[in-house]
Amino acid sequence: MKLGLGLYRHALTAENFRFARQCGCTHIVAHLVDYFKGGSHSAHDDQPTGGLDGWGVAGDPDQLWSLGYLQSVVAAAGNEGLKIAAIENFDPAFWYDVLLDGPRRDAQIENLKSLIRRIGQVGIPCVGYNFSLAGVAARITGPMARGYAIAVGVDGGSDQPIPNGMVWNMIYDQHAPAGYMSPTTSEQLWDRLSRFLSDILPVAEEAGVTLAAHPDDPPFAELRRTPRLVYQPAHYQRLLDANKSGRNQLEFCVGSIAEMTEGDVYDAVDHYSRANKIAYVHLRNVRGKIPSYRETFIDDGDVDIRRVLTILRRNKFDGVIIPDHTPQMSCDAPWHAGMAFALGYICAALQSLP
Ligand SMILES: [Mn+2]
User: Fold this and answer.
1) pLDDT digits 0-9 by tens, 238-273
2) Is residue 243 a contact partner of residue 194, using CB atoms and an 8 Å limit?
3) 103 C-alpha to center of ligand 1: Å?
4) Engineering a disulfide at 231: which of 72, 219, 237, 325 sits with its beta carbon 3.0 to 4.6 angstroms away?
5) ∠ CA(264), CA(339), CA(67), 5° rounding?
6) Which residues pair with 129 in a beta bridge?
7) From ligand 1's centre to the CA of 324, what distance in Å?
8) pTM exceeds 0.85 for this model
9) pLDDT per position as a tens digit, 34-64
10) Are 278 and 308 in contact (CB under 8 A)?
11) Over the stretch 270-310, which tens digit does the pLDDT of each residue have?
12) Which residues, chain by chain, have CB under 5 Å from ion ligand 1?
């Protein structure tokens, strides 16, 4: 197993690459979406939470990440001795009509294919995505982790409808007419996912790029009057069954799975790692389940992290593990301290495995 760190776009700096190396990482999961553009929230150095107005404004649909930009990210990480293990998330600007089945769907699919080819061309082996209308929403933030560390949690969902021009908790059209997203059924959303997979996976296979699906965060059955796809551990199997390509895999989020109301997180780790379907792992801890939970320090929640790692080792998982989110620590560098703590813990746990 390999240790990695997820970095947001603005954090893809030489200093943070060194920080990752110093923490024992060999890999980086890079977010190229700017989640914070025009958003009202200020915690620029932490995971975005935002309100019901979303995180911020999506990018430019006509400005796909260029080959040169992707190469520069790979080179900058390489200069510090790191590999880019994955790009995490498409910009909603690139694929909003794929999610919504809108008029630009086919054009956006072609753009995604170009993007996948470029990602393969620069040697990045994986793209993480989250096929979701509401995206990550309805979370709260506060001094809720050990020692009053600022952490994220959920206390019930939200049935506030999503305004036109917003999807995946970001604004893709600031001039959209008043009104709300058209209703979508769960079956329609599964159909959209399955069409997305059958369009993109052949290109991904040629390009040598794995598509890795994140489950719904938070894993409610419905959020903001939209259906969710992967809100129980078994739904991951349905996603895998939707397309048999070897490149159809999982961005396996231990925290999100532990928050689900059905199943067992250790069974899920065993099942999907045994099937060799885990592209990379988000490893974090949590206390509670839907509809109410709190993200915690990695040693402090309901999940026995060492047990998770033991199962992964037994099933010969050889991919990258990143800490996902962590509570912010009280100091001048709250995000870095939180990540250093989580990475140190995972490092030690990996060394102590049988
Ligand atoms: Mn996650």
Assistant:
1) 999 999 999 999 999 999 999 999 999 999 999 999
2) yes
3) 30
4) 219
5) 95
6) 213
7) 5
8) yes
9) 887 766 554 555 677 667 777 888 888 889 9
10) no
11) 999 999 999 999 999 999 999 999 999 999 999 999 999 99
12) 253, 282, 324
